[in-house]
Amino acid sequence: MNSVQKARIKKTLFFFKDKQGFLAELWAEVAKSIKSAARKNMVPCFRLNLTSDLPWEKIKFNGQSVMEAFPNVQFYDYCKSPERMTAFVNSQTAPQTWAGNWKHVATGGRDWPKNYHLTFSRSETNGALALAFLKSGGNVAMVFRKSLPATYYGHEVIDGDETDLRFLDGSGKIIGLKEKGLAKKDATGFVLEPA
Predict the structure, then answer these.
(1) Which residues, at least 6 apart from 91, have a Cβ–Cβ distance to it below 8 Å?
(2) pLDDT, tens digit, for every residue of 26-74?
(3) Of 56, 74, 113, 149, which is least surrounded by CB within 10 A?
């Protein structure tokens, strides 16, 4: 493992060993990054799950999720949880543009933060779910071998290697990623062959 991977795993372990300490540090880092971005005339956004798939919409510190604590900031993640993605997609059925205001959207008994965007991650075992989320207006990340098709299963493919700002993609899109590293040798069906 390289130093970045080791650091990410260390942070994930910190979360599970000292959740309140981790959350206090996270809140401080987000606040500091927001101030730094403002000084540089930049717009901050945060992707919290890199090597994890934690339900940040449910994790509270001082009674608030990170999205509630920082309502004027965009958060986003990739996710493999069908339950979380369903809640997110359901929150989008009455499209509203995120305008930096904290709003909850009723999602069948759950609230979804308006400043938290999810993209579903297709794997070799969840292809049917991925297509269902696409048909419902959700976005799905898919890994392709060597090149990206313009469309796949009738959905536009966006080059996900150009930017990681998934909340800007629109809806019902495939986020195409080209195979990298060990994925170049994948034979499980995780990497798709463009038609």
Answers:
(1) 105, 107, 112, 114
(2) 999 999 999 999 999 999 999 999 878 999 999 999 999 999 999 999 9
(3) 149
Residue owning tokens 């989008």: 92
Q: Residues 119, 141: contact at Cβ < 8 Å?
A: yes
Give Cβ neighbours of residue 183 (< 8 Å, ≥ 6 apart): 143, 190, 191
CA distance 195 to 162: 22
Burial of 87 from C-beta contacts in 10 A (0-12 / 13-18 / 19+)? buried
pTM: 0.85
Is the separation of the CB atoms in 166 and 121 below 8 Å? no
With 0-12 / 13-18 / 19 or more C-beta atoms within 10 angstroms meaning exposed / middle / buried, residue 91 is buried
Return the beta strands (E) in the chain as ranges.
45-47, 74-79, 104-107, 110-113, 116-121, 140-144, 151-152, 155-159, 174-178, 191-192
d(CA 59, CA 108): 19
State how far the Cα of 77 lies from the Cα of 194, in Å rounded to an integer. 25
Distance between CA atoms of residues 169 and 78, nearest Å? 13
